[in-house]
Every structure is written in C-alpha cells, then in structure tokens.
Write a structure and sequence with these properties.
With about 900 residues, the chain is an alpha/beta fold. The strands form five sheets. It has a 14-stranded mixed β-sheet with strand order 1-2-5-8-11-14-17-21-25-29-32-35-39-41. It is globular, with a radius of gyration of 29 Å.
Length: about 900
C-alpha cells in the first residue's frame, strides 16, 4: 500500500508526550505468526500513515465503478501479484468473449484448488467455517493453519481478476444489445422481474459462476444455502446493474460477497433493496476475497448475523460499499458476547481479524456514503483490527447515526490496527467503550472526524492507549461535540509507555479535558472544555439468546470433558486445558476443568507443558497460572522442553521459569542473555527482574512479598496475580492439594488481579505451614543476594544491547533489584534519543526507593529539557 503525504497535526501533537513519530512504532515481529500481511505491518511500523491511508481508501472506494477495480483494491492489501496482461481482443459477440475468459481462467482456478489435497481442503474448510460461524471454540485451527499453508492464492486471484475484467468490458454491450444465456458457468437474463429460489452465482470447488441479471425487480431467496456471489474454492460473481426497481437478497452463511479459498462478489444497483444473510457475507474473505457493492439511492436495509459487511479474516479481504441515503445497516447483533450483558460478538463493518496466535488477520473495509443512514453493530466493529489484522470504516455524509458497543470505531487490539474516518456534518456517533480511537496490547487505533456540528459520545475508554498500544485521533471542523472520556490519555503499563494523542482544530469544538503524562489534547484556542454533557443516551438492543447460548456452551463443554476421560493422558490434559481456558458464557464447566488441572500428578506435567505453544496462547494465559503451582515439580520437564524449543515457544517456556526457584534455572537464564533472538534476551531479563524484584507499592515484587508479615498480607489490594502466590507456595513441593485448591477457589476470576480474599487465604496457608515457609523464605532472601552479585555485570552488559527493547528490559531489571549504585547506572538513560528507553529509565528509577527518587530529583535540574520532562514523569510514578 502506498500512502500519500501524511498530515502533520498529529506528528506535532505527539511531541507533547515527549515522543516522535518513530517512538509510536509497533513491532509486528513479536510473535511467530503465519500469514501476516505487509500492508498491515506497514501501518503498525508507522501508525501515522493511518490518516493518509484512510483518506486514500475512502476516496478510492467511493469512486469505484468496475468490479475488477474493486477486486484489485483488495488484492493490493493482500500483497498478491496480479498480471495486467491485456484480455483477448473483443469480438462482435460479448457472450463468446465471456466464455473465452472463463475458459482461460479455469486452469488457474484448478491450479489453486489442487494446491491443497482433497483431505486438506475438507479439513481446513471445516475448521475455518467453524470460526466464521462464531464457533471458534470447536474449530481445529491448529490443523487448519497447517493445511492452508500451501494454498495457491495468487492463481485464484488472477483467475477471478481476469473474469471480472471481462465482465466489466462486456456489460455495456450486453445492456445495449440483449444476449440471454442460460449456462452453468454464465447466466445472463433480461426482463421485468425475476425470482430465484435456488443458489445463483454460488461457486463450489473448481467452479466459476457468473450471473448478470438486467431485470428491475430481482429476488434471490435461498434460505440457508450460500448464494448471490459466493466462492468456496471457486469464483462466484453476481451483477444486478439495473438502477430501477427493488432488489431483495436473502441467503445463508457465506453469501452475498463471500470468498473462502475463493472469490465472491455482489455488484448491485436499484431504487430500494433488502439484504439479509447468515454468517460471513456481505463482503467477507478468508484465504480469498469477498466484495459487496450496492448503489441504492434510498431505503436499503442490511442485516447479517456475524462476520461481514467488510470483514477480512486470515489471508482474506472483505470490502463492503453502500452508496445511498436513509439506509438501515445492522451487522453482528445475533450472538451474545460473554464480556457483559448488552454485548454481541459482531466482527462487522470494517474488521480485520486473526485468531490470536494461530494466524494473522486479514483486511476488512467498509464505506458508507450518503445521508440519514443508521449504521449499527456491537463488539469488534466499525474499524477494528485484531491480531495483525486491519479494519477500516469510512462514513461520508451528513446526519448519519452510527452506533457500536466496544472495541470499535478505530480500535487496534492485540498487535493490530483499526481506523475510522467520519466526514460530514451533524452526524451522531455513539459507543459504549474502547473506542473511538483505542490501542490495546501493541495495537493502534485511529479516529478522524472532518466536518461541523457532529456529536461523538462514549461512556469510557476513548482516545486511549494502554498495554503498549497507542491511540491517535485527528478532529477538524467547527462546533463538534466530543463527549469522550479519557480522549487523549495514555498509561505506563508492563513497564512501557502507551500514548493517546488527540489533535483538535477548528472553532468552538467541545471536549472533556484530560490530564495524562502519556496523553495529549492539542486543541485550538476556541475549544470549549466541559466536564459533562447533556446528550441523548444510546439505546442498546437486548440480547435475547443469552440463556440459550449459555446452555449450548455448557452442553458442548461437558461433552468434551466426558470424552476426555477416555483419552490418553496427553490428549486428556489438552482437552482439560482447552475447557479451562474457554472464554464464553458458561463458567461452571471451565471451573471444573481447572480443578482437574490443579490436581495433576508429577508424571503428567510434561504433557501439560507440551501444551504451552504460541498457537494456544489463550490457553497459555491459564496454563502459566496453574503451572506456577507445580514450579518445583515441573523443573526437569521445563528444562527438557526448553532445550529443543525455538522462537516464540522458547520465549514462553523461558518466561515460565520466573515461577521456579532461581537455583533451578539460573544457568539457563544466564545463557539466554546472549541468545541471538532479541525476544529471548528480553525474556531472560524479565525472569531475572521478577526473581529479585524489591519493588513496593501497588505492584510489590517477589522479594517484597516474601518479606511481608501476616497482617500486611491480609490487607493487600495490590495488583498481583495468582501465579505470583503459587510460585511462592510451590517452594513446598509436597503442599497438600487441598491447600492449593483453597487458594485457587478464592480467586473467582483467574486472569484478573488478586482479590483481598485470595491474599487472606494465601496467608492462611502460610500460617498453616509456618515453620517450612519461614525457613524457605529466609533461604530465598539469602540466595537472592548471591545471585544478584553474580548476575549484575551480565545485566549491566545488556544496557549496550543493539535492540532497544532489551536495553529497556535491562533498565527495568536494575530498577527492580534496587542494588547499590543502580540509580547512577540508570540515570544517564533519561537522556536517550529513544522515548521508549527514556521512559524505561524513569520507570526503573520509580521502582526504587530513596536512591531512585534522588536521581530523578537531580535530573529535574538537568540542562536538557527532555531529561527534565521525563524526570518529572518518573516522580509522578512514586
């Protein structure tokens, strides 16, 4: 993708958080994730391109006329080679020209299909279809990824591109001079009104299906079957070019512009229209391209259950375009989201999604151009990117009503990018949370508003960067109301800065003021600051199927648990962990599975550790909490598997050593400080920092917790996690299972910060085994001194590492250790050229006691301004 010259407003604003354009970059190579897209990586590496790319895409999509041009737009995002070789010369017969194009495309399509074996085609399709039906929990995505690797997507796309170009060339001739055709590959019809009750333009394996219907009134009603521009290992294109009359399309899953290992496209004109389909349609692609383009001047209605209206899944692109006014566009309001009572899981209206850790996401784009449209979705919608995907949502027009619920309207979640562009006047934008403009966990969210008298409101979490993500928002125009809490705020989390940068230009705009060391509101002098706004509250749709969906989940999970009892130990443990980590409505069966895992025997632990892989990252979040309880018993298994591990898995196993005793792993961690992979060096420093962490305050370190008295423990409200307690309890290898379960049951939400009740139960266990833990804790404190003396030179050496993230990790480790002279070693890095390192130095000093505070106070008098600024930020962290 090529971006135009970027607007400088945001780049100027970012200086207000002591950073530059380069400091906002996100590294997409953090994980060994297959099927990544260079176009998405470009946006992550330079998030300031989001603005120009959004403008570019909105302009391009709004002017699209030909189907081939729209297909080419999607292809460019996927980075696939496409030949522009001229078509065969046109003859006097456009029908024959089309048949020739289809015939020439067929070998290319056959080549693409045959690039996967029949067995792999079936198994991969079954798994991916489960995900596209919102059944990701039952999908064998690990196999699907492996089976899909060799798919020849380039041949598929070239075949579809050649056919689309041929149709675009033939359409004017076919309209002027009727050439009716009734053939499986090509259907051309004329007349006043046509109704289809069978799938049309629905291409299965190795099929090309092109339908051109010039009738004014067209109804396609195919119930649950894929139809109306569906390509599943095939190419299905539907053209309804008559601008008069009503078009009604009703289809099942994978309809109305859906490409699964295929290309599906719908290109519609009419005076009014209704479009309804199930899952993955209206512009949805996975290992393929789904295109939906409709020009309906007024009175169009859209509905899809899940995953469409511009949704790009792994190696896929989905584009949705609506031109017209007074449309009702609803997507993803069917499946209850487990996070809260009013949420639906949507993945609609400009979403790029990849299943976390298994595979990178695709690109989803949605453009709505017109006035008085109602556009509504819920979770992950309207310009949302998830796991190395990109979602773009562009609304051009006046007095449109736009509503979504969470993770939307320019949100980048888990190393992804999401963008929303709203251009026009008197539009209303409503959201609940995490948008507009939100960057979470190495994600980047971008929101742009251009126009006058627009209103944007949210309840919380807008214009905010957190967990190493960044938010960018660019507002231009007059009299806009921005009732957006935290709009232009950031955070220091996981020891690194997350930025929220907002630029507001124009006259008499209203905004909620924010004060944040890692956020900035660059506003014009006439901007009006208001703490509250009296606005109409959004009406959220009810979630009618919540109880039904919960019961269905419970039945499926219970069945998996029952089947696991008959399986070999390794498979049984794998199924238990899958259920234990299942994120859904039912929590009863996952709790039962976790109880099984809390009671494993030592011989079963190697099989448990084998489940720690990048592909099972969501399971890993639970596995590490549970494995911490077995730290002393799993030492040998962890050693053995670490030796043969590579890449991300090696990093994950190394991180698990944090919960073990230093004496058991120090040689491995020490050697890892010189690993050629920056991620391993960084993880090794993280382990060392964790072992000998003496930080106090909201996040007390390991050594601080060891030193705590009973009364202090029982009063804790600090931000620590259950793995931190189990790692200490595991110093007693023969701790009774009943004690382990008592602590586990006290923590109702395993991945969340510890409840005070959990600390109190932990204190009870310590008291019950007081003699042992008093002795064990004294030994740990004594060993810490020896290890710190031994390892300090090695940690200090990493301050000169070529990778800035390793340097930052070394600074944090020194701050956690708080050894004599560490403050003097850290202080010079407050003046580093990279904001990431400057922030790391300030955070490291804030973790220390008096020495760190004195170093920061001294830096307040430094002649260099950026040193003084970062020192002030560091002092605020005490």
């Amino acid at each position: 993708m090529n971006a135009r010259a970027d607007d400088s407003d945001l780049e100027k604003a970012v200086a207000g958080v002591r950073a530059t354009r380069a400091d906002i970059a996100i590294r997409p190579d953090r994980w060994d994730t297959p099927f990544g897209l260079a176009s998405v990586d470009m946006l992550l590496r330079d998030p300031f391109k989001m603005g120009s790319v959004s403008e570019e895409q909105a302009a391009a999509l709004s002017g699209m006329v030909n189907s081939a041009d729209l297909l080419r737009q999607a292809v460019d995002w996927l980075g696939l080679p496409v030949s522009e070789a001229p078509l065969l010369p046109a003859t006097h017969d456009p029908v024959q020209d089309l048949f020739r194009a289809i015939s020439q495309a067929q070998p290319l399509l056959d080549r693409a299909v045959h690039s996967l074996t029949p067995e792999n085609r079936k198994k991969a399709l079954d798994a991916w279809e489960d995900m596209l039906r919102n059944n990701e929990g039952t999908a064998d995505l690990e196999f699907a990824v492996q089976a899909s690797t060799s798919f020849d997507q380039a041949s598929l796309i070239q075949a579809a591109y050649n056919v689309a170009r041929a149709v675009d060339r033939a359409l004017p001739l076919l309209e002027r001079s009727p050439h009716p055709v009734d053939n499986p590959e090509l259907l051309i019809r004329y007349g006043k009104s046509h109704t289809y009750q069978r799938p049309v333009a629905a291409a299965g394996e190795k099929q090309i299906r092109v339908v051109i219907d010039f009738a004014e009134e067209v109804t396609i009603d195919t119930a649950s079957a894929p139809s109306a521009g569906s390509g599943i290992f095939g190419i299905g294109l539907l053209y309804l070019p008559n601008a008069r009359g009503t078009k009604i399309l009703r289809g099942g899953d994978f309809s109305q512009g859906a490409g699964l290992f295929g290309v599906g496209g719908v290109f519609v004109q009419g005076s009014s229209a209704t479009f309804t389909c199930g899952n993955a349609g209206q512009g949805a692609g996975l290992f393929g391209i789904g295109l939906f383009s409709a020009d309906i001047p007024a009175n169009a209605a859209y509905q899809i259950d899940f995953g469409g209206q511009g949704a790009g899944f792994t190696r896929g692109a989905g584009i949705f375009i609506h031109h017209g006014s007074q449309a009702d566009i609803r997507g993803g309001l069917t499946y209850p989201d487990p996070r809260e009572e009013l949420g639906f899981t949507s993945f609609c209206q400009g979403v790029g999604y990849g299943p976390r850790a298994y595979a990178a996401g695709g690109v989803g784009l949605a453009l709505v151009q017109g006035d008085h449209n109602h556009i509504e979705s819920s979770y992950f919608a309207q310009g949302s990117g998830y796991w190395l995907g990109f979602g773009g949502f562009f609304v051009l027009g006046d007095e449109n009503a736009i509503q979504a619920r969470r993770y939307d309207q320019g949100a980048g979640i888990h190393t992804a990018a999401g963008a929303m562009l709203l251009r026009g006047n008197k539009n209303t934008l409503m959201n609940w949370a995490v948008g507009p403009a939100y960057g979470w966990d190495y994600g980047v969210g971008y929101f742009a508003l251009e126009g006058n008298e627009n209103t944007a409101q949210a309840s919380w979490g807008s214009g905010h960067g957190d967990i190493n993500g960044h938010a960018l928002a660019d507002i231009s125009g007059d009299k806009n109301t921005l009732a957006l809490p935290a709009f232009g705020s950031g955070a220091i989390s996981r020891n690194a800065p997350s930025y929220g940068v907002v630029s507001v230009s124009g006259e008499s705009n209203q905004i909620i003021p924010v004060s944040s060391p890692w956020g900035i509101q660059q506003i014009s002098s006439s901007t009006i600051l208001k703490d509250t706004f009296d606005l109409t509250k959004p009406e959220w749709p009810t979630v009618p199927k919540r109880a039904e969906s919960k019961e269905k989940e419970k039945t499926e999970l219970s069945g998996k648990m029952a089947r696991a009892e008959k399986e070999p130990a390794s498979d049984r443990i794998g199924d238990w962990l899958f259920v234990a980590a299942y994120f859904g409505l039912d929590q009863e069966v996952p709790a039962q599975a976790r109880d099984r895992l809390w009671t494993l025997t030592t011989p079963e632990l190697p099989a448990f550790i084998e489940r720690v892989t990048p592909e099972r990252f969501d399971e890993y979040l639970y596995a590490r909490s549970i494995l911490a309880a077995y730290a002393a018993l799993s030492t040998n298994a962890l050693h053995d598997q670490f030796i043969s591990a590579q890449g991300t898995r090696k990093m994950m196993l190394l991180s698990l050593m944090s919960y073990g005793a230093p004496k058991d792993f120090v040689s491995v961690v020490q050697a890892s400080l010189n690993d050629p992979d920056w991620r391993i060096r960084r993880a090794a420093l993280g382990v060392l920092g964790y072992w000998f962490d003496q930080e106090e305050g909201r996040t007390p370190g390991r050594l601080t917790i060891i030193r705590m008295h009973d009364k202090t423990i029982r009063a804790q409200t600090s931000e620590k996690y259950i793995a931190d307690l189990f790692a200490l309890l595991a110093l007693k290898p023969d701790l009774p299972i009943t004690d382990r379960l008592t602590v586990a049951h006290a923590q109702k939400d395993l991945p969340e910060a510890l409840a005070t009740a959990t600390w109190q139960v932990y204190a009870d266990v310590l008291l019950k085994n007081k003699k042992f833990y008093d002795q064990a804790f004294r030994a740990e404190l004594e060993a810490a001194k020896q290890f710190q003396r031994q390892l300090l030179p090695l940690v200090t050496d990493r301050l000169h590492d070529p990778d800035p993230e390793v340097v930052q990790a070394a600074l944090i480790t020194l701050g956690q250790w708080d050894t004599d002279g560490a403050a003097d070693t850290i202080r010079p890095f407050l003046g580093d050229d990279k904001a990431y390192i400057r922030e790391g130095a300030a955070t490291a000093l804030s973790k220390m006691g008096r020495a760190g505070k004195r170093a920061l106070e001294k830096a307040l008098k430094d002649p260099e301004e950026r040193v003084r600024l970062i020192a002030a930020v560091g002092l605020k962290q005490f």
